Please model this.
Amino acid sequence: MRFDDHYVQQVRSATDIVHLVSGYVNLKKQGANHSGLCPFHNEKTPSFKVNQSLQIFKCFGCGEGGDVFRFIQLMEGLNFPEAIRQLAERQGIPLPASDPGQERRAEEREKLQELMRTAAEFFQQSLERPEGKKARAYLSERQIQESTARAFGLGFAPPGSRLLEELRRRGLEVQDALTCGLLKKNDRGELYDKFRARVMFPIRNLSGQVIAFGGRALAETGPKYLNSPETPLYHKSDHLYGLDLARDEIRRRNFAILVEGYFDCIVPHQAGFPNVVASLGTSLTENQVKILSRYSQKVVLNFDPDSAGVAAAVRSIDLFARAAVQVNVMELPAGADPDSYIREEGAERYAERLKHSLPYMDYLLERFLEQERDPFSPRGKQQVVSQIIPYLAGIPNRIERAEYVSRTATRLRLDERLVLEELRRAGRPTQASETLAPQPQPPLATATPAEVCLLRAVLDPGWSQRVLEQLEPDLLEGLVTEPIFQKLEEIRELHGENRILFLRDQLGDRHLVHLVEGAALEAVEHGLSEQTIQESLRALRRKQLESSSLRLQRAIAQAEKRGDTAELELLLERKASLRRRIELDLN
Model:
């Protein structure tokens, strides 16, 4: 559903940002702002600020900032329409009327969600009943504690078609259960339970709603694991098992552990590794990588050490590397997986292996060497180099790339120049003159103190009008803040009362937004005076006069070179006049 500007503003105005953020962060009042530890990166000294009147938050440590919608998007992993919907529901604001088709689809979705809630409750209750004794014994054998089973909502699907009977008893649509993959039809067209005599693992979205199930057989017959199909509620490439429980810990610890199976996620979580998620038994997708990267730019892969697990790790490394996510690989002994290793060796041994996880380039190099029958033969070396080159070429940092070129050459007993030549052929420049790619810096680091002071002034309603009137266009020419002042001039009449949020939406450059957010919070926290404002205006005038003087000097040099006496005389007069203006300004 698309929301018009009026509705968005209605929801924003109804949501107190301090109240919203306080549900996630322990805030303390400090002057005009509230401050606390940033929820988006690890820090010991609070650099996270929230302002009630401006309705914005800002972290001066990691740079993240925005309004109520941005905050809830980051905390809950929502897109913009989902954030609007959630905040509207919190404030009791009814959703705007939509076309009949949208309303019908929303109603259908709600019916399916109610059905999945009912099924999840049925499976959990069945686990506690006498028929769940064998399932409870199985979970106990796997060392799953009752509190863990409750946290993950584990259940039991009894034999027969007991779920079908329960749904009919409650008057729920069995056709919807068929759509959700809870029921199937036999050759005679009769419905029956899809999941029977299985331990059940509910799969939940980020809001904690059950959208699918996985089932582990207790008998030896049939497939060991059975999973829900794709449904209107569930697209497995869009979800990660356990993320609803793990996301806050992923943020706090600033890395995620990615595993393959249900128990591989549950057992580490129980053992004190709550930042673990699983890939739902399917090859990792770009969308899953994108979802996980919302919470951290670091991930440790802990897949099974068999050939299938190694292949899955290599595929996943490729996806994470392309998304600029830092990847390490945690290796376990042959035949072990996270579940069995923790149960047999203990959490401390697992933590030690986690601590010594390999950067993905080291892991790949060793795997490619293992795959060759004779890796140090001429042909073997060529094969390994050809496999590792695409990954070397994908490393953006020149120093890190050079280090791995050296490691590769040393490990293969090759002249480093040969690896560099292969890298050059792959399209990655390796000349000694190559420089590191410049890292973008927030404008707050490059804007002059005078610019920042004046920006604070124009963002303060008490000073805004007077200062904007004194900022002539030529005074701003070439400044970092020029686009901000220009935009403020455009919107000052239309949005005179509080322009911060509107300005954020109008500026396309994230660095300029960063500067505006910081200046706005500083404006309300630290007072301004007429003297500091006038000094800042004079500083900008001097800066522009000095720039003009430099341009004149270059023009004089060119006129002298050409021998243009008339032009030279005119330029010298202009320079003398400019010098008098500078001296007057200094006095």
